[in-house]
Design goal:
With 233 residues, the chain is an alpha/beta fold. The protein is built from 6 helices and 6 strands; from the N terminus they run E-E-E-H-E-H-E-E-H-H-H-H. The radius of gyration is 17 Å and the shape is globular. It starts with 14 loop residues before the first strand and ends with a helix.
């Protein structure tokens, strides 16, 4: 059944614990205690309290800048293109959790997990949040495209599976849409689309367009992106 929004907007907790389900090299479910370090009218930024020391770590001021950029440009652009996002907590904001657990998964800079929308007894992780998991160690110039990419996934699931009571999008097409979203925010290079295209074009016979392997890497993403980009153009 459809999720019911709270009758009144929920106040953002100064600190909270998120469930991080096993994925890749994170072989068992973890919990991450995090502190709210940045906020805008459309986004909340939480930073993992157990962040390891690294010269590559984003600072709290960096996260505020990243969220400001997301709110001032990305949010409205992506929403007007793909539709409204989910809002299970009724606050009109999405959450970005910056945690090294993303780095530990391997070969990802961030991801969206639809299980965050649901209670455990409904197959979710119990976070009950419209959230995305983000690496805190990426190049500064890549965050705009990264957040836009993951935000498309959040909208995509809500529009397909909840607003329209259908199936989640096919993985290859979902990823193609997110890579196209990077173009919308001028993140073609910083987000890595050019590299994916190059990987595909070097050996196009090695890759399949509608790969059912998740996550999709390299040439498969390049093929899917080029197909969708061609349709758009």
């Amino acid at each position: 059944p459809p999720l019911r929004r709270p009758s009144a907007p929920q106040q953002a907790a100064a600190s909270r614990t998120f469930i991080f389900e096993q994925s890749g090299k994170v072989t068992y479910d973890r919990s991450a205690s995090a502190t709210l370090v940045a906020s805008t009218t459309r986004a909340l930024g939480y930073l993992d309290d157990a962040l390891a020391t690294s010269a590559d770590n984003v600072s709290q001021s960096d996260i505020q800048d990243i969220l400001d950029q997301f709110t001032s440009g990305t949010y409205d652009l992506v929403t007007s293109t793909f539709g409204e996002p989910s809002d299970v907590d009724g606050n009109g904001k999405v959450i970005f959790l910056f945690t090294h657990l993303v780095d530990q998964v391997g070969d990802v800079a961030g991801f969206y997990a639809s299980g965050s929308l649901f209670d455990v007894d409904r197959g979710g992780d119990g976070n009950l949040a419209d959230m995305m998991y983000i690496s805190p160690t990426r190049p500064p110039e890549s965050y705009q495209s990264l957040l836009a990419h993951e935000y498309q996934h959040l909208i995509n699931f809500y529009q397909h599976a909840m607003a329209r009571d259908g199936d989640a999008e096919e993985t290859w097409l979902n990823e193609a849409l997110s890579h196209y979203t990077e173009d919308l925010v001028d993140g073609h290079i910083a987000g890595g689309n050019a590299q994916l295209v190059d990987t595909y074009l070097q050996h196009p016979g090695l890759f399949t367009l509608t790969s059912d392997v998740s996550p999709l890497y390299g040439g498969n993403r390049g093929a899917a992106y080029l197909f969708l980009r061609g349709l758009v153009d």
